[in-house]
């Protein structure tokens, strides 16, 4: 197809989402390179993200552009380029989150420098959705979320809690200081483990550089916040079996994960290539299959719209502090990270992605679980 025909095809497709090329609205695309049209049509969402990184187009409000596109169901029409098809085949043939490989995947995101996250996140370094009920800033929203988790687990002083995918130790520190519990946190990120140990020093907190599959002892309760997305669909059942093995009979397991509205075996091609290698956001069906005969769902809480607020706050911090990071990361990284944060915000705003907190038990609570909000 000739270039003019490709241009018109893209213009017609985007028009259904109220997006114009070189238009006046802040969600319109300003195209600087005519190669953009062919790349978008041939490579779909990967081409869209990569062409932004390459400076082929700009947009004042990427988050609102993505919101419009998703609400118009245009993402469902996106083509998969050969790179995406190849990775889809790999995901179906191989376990891309096997032990050893999982650590390398994590290092590509979490070991790129603690300074980036210290300047982008809240003061506690919580890299997951905040709970914005009765909060007007990121610090309060994240503290609300940590307290919500503790209350959902009904933590009592002296109890021992396993934190699978502990990040920089934010939950471990909060729970130990405010609820008097002991926490064992496991992560496969060296950078996270080192800083988490510093943050949690002098507290009854043990941070291990360890794959979750190698944990053998039992705990009063288990929490996992924003880690299940990295497990991979081939390991969903194994993850649940490990949690079941490590949870005492009367214990509670609080699982906090992003969720998606339909089952897939690979992530969005751009996210998979540049942000979270070999990640997978689970569906209700995939979670249910993984939990069968292991856990009873006592509570399922969806506060996905709060992730929009969280991501926008992260971007504001990142953008405001970019001068302190620019020398280390460079302009292409800035555009990649900006696209990642803002497109993710738009996706949650459009309700394409969800945020779920599940409270699970092994045998069920006689008389029922009293849900906490």
Account of the 3D structure:
The protein is 47% helix and 15% strand. It has 373 residues and is of the alpha/beta class. The strands form 2 sheets. The chain has a 7-stranded mixed sheet. A two-stranded antiparallel ribbon has the order 1-2.
Quick one: how many beta strands?
9
- Rg from Cα: 21 Å
- Percentage of residues assigned to helices: 40-55%
Average pLDDT number: 92
What is the terminal separation in angstroms? 55 Å
Strand content: 15-25%
Q: List low-confidence stretches.
A: 80-92
Secondary-structure element order, as H and E? HEHEHHHHHEHEHEEHEHHEHHHE
- How are the strands of the biggest sheet laid out side by side? 5-4-3-6-7-9-8
Helix-strand blueprint:
Blueprint: H1 3-15, E1 30-31, H2 35-53, E2 57-58, H3 62-71, H4 82-93, H5 101-110, H6 114-120, H7 138-152, E3 160-164, H8 170-179, E4 182-187, H9 190-199, E5 205-209, E6 219-225, H10 236-246, E7 247-260, H11 269-275, H12 284-291, E8 296-302, H13 305-320, H14 322-329, H15 331-349, E9 353-361
Parallel strand pairs: 3-4, 3-6, 4-5, 6-7
Antiparallel strand pairs: 1-2, 7-9, 8-9
Helix pairs in contact: 1-2, 2-11, 2-15, 3-15, 7-8, 10-12, 13-15
Quickly list its features.
alpha/beta, 373 residues, two-stranded antiparallel ribbon
Summarize this structure briefly:
The protein has 373 residues and is an alpha/beta fold. It has 15 helices and nine strands. The chain has helices at residues 3-15, 35-53, 62-71, 82-93, 101-110, 114-120, 138-152, 170-179, 190-199, 236-246, 269-275, 284-291, 305-320, 322-329, 331-349; strands at 30-31, 57-58, 160-164, 182-187, 205-209, 219-225, 247-260, 296-302, 353-361.
